[in-house]
């Protein structure tokens, strides 16, 4: 199935799911599990609101069992097992690692992931069009997205030639993202310096290395720990005089120069549509994984001013959001 056919299938089915349709089976109380690395209130609120709009009201006809590892992924298998013992009707697995823990815990309870980077390459699903098994959901990453971020950095700072890439070595998406960055760097005549941080305590050392090696800008790869520490990362980038670009707009909101990626909040809300379809009888194996078709460019002009940078007008005109 090519991309055009795949997106057409989505438009003809999943994407037009009625947002106001009531939950089926009057009198039934649905039990939905949420498995995540982080208890992000804003993002979880989007999911709960999406469920409410579809007729699943917590405390009335729906019970939501929440399990979060608080960044300690070694706890995820036990938390997933708890949800299985509760006999939930579906599990929404948020973030990078939780979908894998959920899949290992059950082969029968439907699992919906909200923001996985590489569901096919990592073995989470068989294919985007026909996931197979009991897992489906929404992907965050599209091919060449990391390279596009590098292009935006180069456009904002035409003179840069050394760019650091900050990644978590334990991230399942790291290898693919680094390959994309390396492919994009060659025609832009940019040298990449790989920086690693597996825990918050590693961040200061990574930025110290970036300063010593005189890198001129920074790409931040995704991951739950980085997302949780995004304000700290933005502060370190500013103090190191490093223009930084990340995936989610939340990084720009706390001080990174730019972000370019899918809308994470929208993905959480759309996960509710998958849950609704499944609870109404659809099989996860038959629900295509949704890939992002729109990416947001967010620019923080306050940070640009702090870094004494002038963002080109051509870039500002293409931005979806500008923070002033």
Features:
alpha/beta, Rossmann fold, 2 domains, 13 helices
Secondary structure topology:
Blueprint: H1 3-12, E1 30-36, H2 41-53, E2 62-68, H3 76-85, E3 90-93, H4 98-105, E4 111-116, E5 135-139, H5 145-156, E6 162-167, H6 174-185, E7 191-196, H7 203-212, E8 217-220, H8 224-228, H9 230-239, E9 244-246, H10 249-253, E10 258-261, H11 264-279, E11 296-300, H12 301-306, H13 313-318, E12 321-323
Parallel strand pairs: 1-2, 1-3, 3-4, 4-5, 6-7, 6-8, 8-9, 9-10, 11-12
Antiparallel strand pairs: 10-11
Helix pairs in contact: 2-11, 3-4, 5-6
Summarize this structure briefly:
The chain has 324 residues and is an alpha/beta fold. The protein folds into two domains: 3-141 and 264-286, Response regulator (Rossmann fold, 3-Layer(aba) Sandwich), CATH 3.40.50; 145-261 and 296-323, Rossmann fold (3-Layer(aba) Sandwich).
Number of beta-strand segments: 12
Shape: elongated
CATH architecture of the largest domain: 3-Layer(aba) Sandwich
Q: Residue-averaged pLDDT, rounded?
A: 89
Structural class: alpha/beta
Helix content: 25-40%
Count of separate DSSP helical elements: 13
Low-confidence stretches: 1-22
**Cα end-to-end separation:** 43 Å
Taken together, the total number of domains comes to 2
CATH topology name of the largest domain, in short, is Rossmann fold
- Assess the beta-strand content as a share of residues: 15-25%
User: CATH superfamily of the largest domain, called what?
Assistant: Response regulator
Helix-strand sequence: HEHEHEHEEHEHEHEHHEHEHEHHE
Write out the strand line-up for the largest beta sheet, numbering strands in chain order: 7-6-8-9-10-11-12
Overall CATH class of the largest domain? Alpha Beta
Characterize the main sheet.
Answer: 7 strands, mixed
Integer-rounded radius of gyration: 20 Å
